[in-house]
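Prompt: May I have another protein with tokenized structure?
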Amino acid sequence: MGYIPEDALANLRKYAYKGVDKSLLSKHVLNPFWTWLVTLWPKWVAPNTITLSGLIMVLINFATLIYFDPDYLAERGGAPGPPHWVYFTWAAGLFIYQSFDAIDGKQARRTGMAGPLGEMFDHGCDAINTTLEVILAGRALNLGRSWWTVASQIASLANFYLTTWEEYHTGQLFLGVFSGPVEGILLIVGIYVVTGFAGPTFWDTPALTFLRLDKVDIITKYIPNKGLNEAVMALGAVVLAFNIITSYYNVYKAKVDAGQGPFRPLLHLLPFPISAALQIFWLSSPSFSRSFIVNSPLFMPFLCAWGLQFAHQVGRMILAHVTKQPFPWFDVMWLWSLAGAIDANLLRLIGRQPLIQHSPENVKIFIHLTLAVSLLSYTTFCAQVINEITNYLGIACFTVRKKDETGAWRRAASVDKITTNKKA
């Protein structure tokens, strides 16, 4: 069975991208740069090729982390870390990713390849990048294996889920004055640059001490003098709260304008806290020692598996958006995570040792198996959806071509020239 029912395939031809970007930085600084950058790409290069090229840059960044710090340790107590120059490459790779992610839509309009496949492919790469940047930024901020990194994962995924949920209910992608794809990414680029110069331990500096406010009694009385890295986490919480309010306001307004109930969409937020709660329950299992996974080299594979499951979850949501299908309430990978979480917590639940994860070696095997199953589930989803969309629309994923009425392939730019001009 496919992911797109027969009666929903026709909606692929009705899809048209709609977006709003209120970022002043994007409008006055970045967009002129992106408009120039896209002209450097030949028109025979497919938009999805540009998107994938950007993700490859992030994957290279992640590969350097695995090479230099496979155990994902914070630099405390003499623990070695990546050379400082590596953080500059992370900054460059992420900036390239952002640039390529911004121009793939422009390339789609230049080549006449704008459509639902590009929307799906773009969101899929963004979903993967979200978790990878959580891991990389956690290392740059010297958080490493910690619940702060878990909190960062939850906040980042929640922001992405909110954006996708908002697009599903409003029909357009809304980027506010401070958004993850623009200001959020540039903030992380800045963190990488600072770490490259000062090292990860710089972020352990107490924030009030750094700002020379630690002698001001009225401030120290109400604000704890925590590290700069924890202050960054607090800023992320504020941004998340702002985005929750903004996203719901946009959904509320869209539903009221359409004469529909504005409160039912709130129920569609439930899948995210359910899936996140499963991961937290698993991570907090008391087996061997409290938070065994968080404090072991298994932490990074666990986060990667979590990120892949999340990418599958939001991928199905954006697919429902472009094909006008009902909201996807359930994800089959929840069952796997639930089984893993219950097994790891049997001692807490019924007072007996886990059936599967009863030794450190078994936990290691099961976490890596979870990563493999999550990867297989997501890649299968991507391959099948790409196959269904390209077959129905008669297009190619990584080349600028389209089938005509006879089934022959030809350049897509001439086929969609009029449509592209109207969309532009």
